Structures are given as C-alpha cells and as structure tokens.
Amino acid sequence: MSVLGNYLQGVQHFGVTVDDMAKSIEFYIDILGGKIAMSGDGFVGEVVHNTMFQKEDLEAIERGIDARELGIPDVRDGSKEALDVRFVSFGNTVVELIHFRDAKLNPNAPNAIKKLPSGVGYANASHISFHVKDDVDLNKFAITLEEECLKRGINVACNRILTVRSEAERRQVALKYTANKFWNDPNPDYFVEGYSDSDFGDFHGWSLFYCKGPNGEQLEFNQVTRRSKELFIKAQREYNQEMGTSFVWPSATSL
Questions:
Q1: CA dist., res. 31 & res. 254, Å (int)
Q2: What is the spatial order of strands in the sheet that 180-181 belongs to?
Q3: Region 150-168 average pLDDT
Q4: How far apart are CA 32 and CA 242, in angstroms?
Q5: Which is the most buried residue in 16, 82, 148, 241, by most CB within 10 A?
Q6: What are phi and psi of 34, to 5 degrees?
Q7: What is the C-alpha to C-alpha distance for residues 96 and 128, in angstroms, rounded to an integer?
Q8: Residue-wise over 207-223: b if at least 16 C-beta within 10 A, else e?
C-alpha cells in the first residue's frame, strides 16, 4: 500500500521550460486548443529563486563553481534574469510553460539558458507537479516525504524558500520556510516576514515546493486553492465547452 498516496489527488501539471514563449503559446493554445488558466511575467526574488534552485545552488557551493555552470538563472533580485509562466489547461491536466529571460527584456526575449538537445534520452528538461489535497499541510508533507525517502535510502531533499549556505542549514530552517505559499496564512507560525503579505494577484492560493526524484528528475508538489483554484476551474470549463469533454476538478479534500 502507498505510504503517501492518500495525500495526493493525481498530477496537477507538467512543466516545460521554453525558449520562445510566443510560439509556445501559439502552439499550445491556438493549435492544440488549451485554455489559459493563470499567467504571470517578471517573477523575481529570493523566495522564487530558492524555491526552484536551492539544491543546485548548494551543489555549486560544495563544488566551488558558479551555479551558472549548472544551467541556473539568477532571479534573486531582478538585476539579471526574470521568470515568466503560463498555465494552459487541457481539461484533465495542465501544461506549465516556464521561461527565464534577461530581466531588462520582455517575455518575447529568448530563454536565458541554452536549450537542451530535444532527444527524449536527455533528462531534466521538464518537471512533473503532483496535486496535493487541499487540507494537507504542505510544509509538513515535505518533511514527511524527505523522512520516508531517507528510510528507504532514496536521496530526496525539498528546497526551502530561505537562503542557506549548506545542507546542514537547509535541514535546520523553521517549518514555515519549506513550502512557497502565495497567501497570507492567518497562522502566525507560517507567516513569512516581507513575503506573506504580498499582493499575489491571480496566484493567490497557489503553493508549492520543489525537489529532485531518485533519478534527478525535477519534481514539484503543489496545491491550488482560493483565487488560483477558481481560475483553473474556469479554464477547465472553457476547455470542456469548446472540446465537448466533461473533465471535473478533483474533489478529494481529506485524508
């Protein structure tokens, strides 16, 4: 029997980093018929950077190299790169288009890091995001995931949103710095100073953490609640109406 399967409700999206955002949108929407659920341009900041790249940054420190050598853009403060995203609903699942570009340019600029060869044999060019049930504490789930993997000899370390300089520091940060939560949590133990009270717009209610799977594959675990959930359901309904499908939003909300 699955140890953590009851915390999940399927796969929420598949992500792919794209070099040309405009052509990608044309392909996935105008040609394949996907519907935009959420989009945002110019994401930067320590929390965003650590959420996505903490493991690589720690590896670079350990090896004494620049993280750029590992294909890592710098979105820490908006002086170098910035992140653009588009979530495209296909009814039963979502495709996330990810794009890192020079922060001084617009989303039509090419991706800041060179493309991988397109052969399916090349790993880590995309990511899978598992959909965690609404009532699960995502911070605690990340710790449980790490502990279960450790017992089995599987190396899975979940990125924290706080900047750290070593693996020991990563393990010691407070629980509230585990998942990136796009809302002001009323629980003071989860309030992140200078971040939780930000205006998250359409992303209000989104939350996630990143980690690597046992083969180094990029994984994400996320929740879709509040405003973001409304937008995803709206996009799903639009897709259903146009394509004649009848997909429904996952309703499992308890363990």
A1: 37
A2: 35-43, 81-89, 94-102, 8-17, 126-132, 218-224, 206-212, 180-181
A3: 96
A4: 12
A5: 82
A6: -65, 160
A7: 10
A8: bbbbbbeeeeebbbbbb
